[in-house]
Amino acid sequence: MAGNGEKINKDSIIPIYYQLTQYIKQQIAGNVWRTGDKIPSEREFCSQFQISRMTVRGAIESLKNEGLIYSKKGLGNFVCTPKLDQKLNKLTSFTDDMFARGLKPGSKTLLLKLTPAPLDIAEILHINAGDQVINLKRLRLANDEPMALEDTYINESLVPNLLQKYESGDSLYTTIKEKCGVELSDATESIEVGLCSKKFAKLLEVAPGAPVFSIHRVTLTKKRQPIETVISIYRGDRYSFSMQLEV
User: Fold this and answer.
1) What are the pLDDT digits (tens) for 155-202?
2) What fold, for 16-79?
3) I need a labelling partner for 94 at 20 to 30 A (CA). Which of 65, 76, 140, 190 fits?
4) Which of 26, 28, 2, 32 is nearest to 14 (CA)?
5) Least-confidence region, from 46-55, 109-118, 234-243
6) What angle (nearest 5°) sits at the alpha carbon of residue 38, between those of residues 33 and 41?
7) β-strand 76-79 against 69-72: which pairing, if any?
8) What does R_g of the chain's alpha carbons equal in angstroms?
9) What angle do CA 157, 185, 193 make, to 5 degrees?
10) Is the pTM here over 0.85, yes or no?
11) 84-242 belongs to which CATH class?
């Protein structure tokens, strides 16, 4: 297999295109090729390893699908910014998560208003349709790069002063806890994989049809009251999700 010797073992049972993908991954992991660097051209890989262009293209497409490299028309292939891996075993705010990664969190408030609860939202929050809820829509940023869109509904009766306390850019969970005096307990999440709509693509700065994660979260207070329901759309090229499973 391609490795430190930079060779492809053509007698191996391991497919040649896969050996090439592993070689490219090693170069990226070892910081030989860093974020934004241009990797060798198809012709250069063919010459270096004495393999076909079709094989090289297969490896390149595989790495594109994994979000490790991207193409610029007429310029070649480049190393992507590493994905952010989100652990699914702890309830954290986006702001706190970005700070923990050493990134600068950011938020653009797209909508913040008091509104009657639609029936589906009311059922999730265990309130009556038409009861007042706070609807907060935000674009979430990391180092000024769009990462996710959030559409949040909050049970206004549990935090009646939230609209006055919350400031754009603040951590919502920190505001609820420290300024409204409400302790959060835990949440349930469901994750689906989909394609970005034209409506959201411009805000997230991705192409329509780009892969995204759609995450639905319901958050409970310490008193086991559902306080928040939120649907988040995360960029598939910038995020991955993982969890630890016990035997």
Assistant:
1) 999 998 899 998 887 889 989 999 999 999 999 989 999 999 999 999
2) Arc Repressor Mutant, subunit A (1.10.10)
3) 65
4) 2
5) 234-243
6) 110
7) antiparallel
8) 23
9) 95
10) no
11) alpha beta
Provide the terminal-to-terminal Cα distance of the chain, rounded to the nearest Å.
33
Task: State the DSSP code for 51.
Answer: -
How many beta carbons lie within 10 A of that of residue 167, not counting itself? 9
Of 112, 220, 221, 96, the C-alpha closest to 166 is: 112
Dihedrals phi, psi of 103, to nearest 5 degrees = -105, 155
Token duo for residue 140: 């979430």
> Which parts of the chain fold into alpha helices (H)?
16-29, 42-49, 53-65, 94-100, 119-125, 162-165, 172-174, 198-204
- What's at 21, amino acid-wise? T
Domain spans, the chain: 16-79, 84-242
Domains 16-79 and 84-242 equal at CATH topology level: no
> Looking at the predicted structure, is the pLDDT value of residue 154 above 70?
yes
DSSP characters over 163-228: HHH--TTS-HHHIIIIIT---EEEEEEEEEEEE--HHHHHHHTS-TT-EEEEEEEEEEETTS-EEE
**Bridging pattern class, strands 184-195 and 211-221:** antiparallel
pLDDT value of position 80: 83
